[in-house]
Amino acid sequence: MSAKIALDKANYDFAKRFITAYFALRSHITTQSIINYPPGLSPNQLKMLHLVFHKPGISQTLVAERLGVTTASISTSVREMEAQGLIERRPNPDDARVLLLHLAPLGEQIFEQVFDQFINTCADLLGVLPCDDQQQLVERFEAVLVANNINLDVGKMSYSEKLRMMKDSPNPVT
User: Fold this and answer.
1) How confident is the model over 66-92, as pLDDT tens digits?
2) Contacts of 88 (CB under 8 A, 6+ apart)
3) How far, CA to CA in Å, does 60 sit from each of 43, 71, 88, 97, 143?
4) CA-CA distance, 45 to 61, in Å (whole number)?
5) CB 144 within 8 A of CB 60
6) H-type helices in 33-104, by residue range?
7) What is the mean pLDDT of the chain?
């Protein structure tokens, strides 16, 4: 076996272990975090809240594409979520026919609570390691992201800071 094939096999095996650990971590954070979403939201509506939080100013059409649902079902969900005070539709300054989605104040409030719960769950999880090991783990993970040109700026702000930044941003995502 050549060195390249062995390296590719080792890389594949590490990637497989990483993705297994990632999904276990994601599942742990989700199941251990107490999140008070408004009652009656469907799983796709919860996904939509997450998407709109991370991509404020996204169009309904793009939400439908990313969630793999019809634009008609997104329109219905948006109306329901707008009525609950979770999402706002705002005109696109570049195309008045298009409405862009943003979190309403209640939606922002929910995400501040969600973020705090995720932080507490992760703090509990990492608390079994000494501080130096925690620092090394985070630094290595950040190094992987930086090496792949994945922006870490968002990770250095709280959700409320990110919300303020997004509200002030002149460039919505469409």
Assistant:
1) 999 998 989 999 999 999 999 999 999
2) 82, 101, 102, 103, 104
3) 17, 7, 11, 12, 35
4) 15
5) no
6) 43-54, 60-67, 71-83
7) 82
